[in-house]
Every structure is written in C-alpha cells, then in structure tokens.
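Sequence only, no structure available. Ideas?
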Amino acid sequence: MKNDCIFCAIAAGEIPCFKVYEDDVVLAYLDINPCTKGHTLVIPKAHSAGLLDTPPDALKEIVARVQKVAAHVKEVLGCDGFNILQNNGEAAGQSVFHLHFHIVPRYKDGPSLTFQSRKGDMAALAALGERLRF
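Reply:
I predicted one. Tokens follow.
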C-alpha cells in the first residue's frame, strides 16, 4: 500500500471495496463491518482528516454527494429512514482519520440508535449558550 491512509488507498483502487457510487469528488462503498444492511461510507477522494480540515467549497460538493447516495440507498433498500454519521476525533469514535460519512439505513424492526439524554439544567444551559454564542 503506497498510501498511509487506508481510505486514500481504497479511493486510489489499491484496496478493493464494494463500490456503490463514484465520481470525480467521492467514492461510496459498503462498510465491511456494517451496523445495518446497506451501511455505506462516502469518502472524498482528496484527503482531509475531518470536517474542520476540509475547505468549505469541497465540503459543499461532498455533502451533495452524500445526499445523492443516501437517497439512492433509501430507494433501493426501501428502508424506513437513515442516519448520517460523521465522527471527528478519537473521542467521537473516529478511527480512520480521513473525512467520511456513514449512511446507516434504519428499519422499524431493526436495532435503535439512541443517545443518553438527561434533563438539562436551565441556568447552566443559559450560561453555556452565552459562552458558545458568536
């Protein structure tokens, strides 16, 4: 493998994949460790480590392709919905440091994806909102 990045190697054709879609900007292929039937990854062909490292104009083009691939996956599989996941940093679950989007088809009778919500402290939320406002 001449690329140190496994996703760059896949995009370059050095490592095979189960291709779903390809154009000059992205490659979309089935995840080999899927969460659900049809779990698809969409990667840009140009390397960037994550969302914050990707130029806005490039991101616009990539997300347009994510939308196109998600619509196709939903239509073909007839899933009830889908999640789009994009992890940034090890703490967020990113294990390959090449920008990528997961399209995870969802089925009513399939596993759920839930976040542990807790009742918010309104005063703390107000203070945090002020701190984050720009």
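The beta strands are 19-22, 26-30, 40-44, 81-85, 101-106.
Hope that gets you unstuck.
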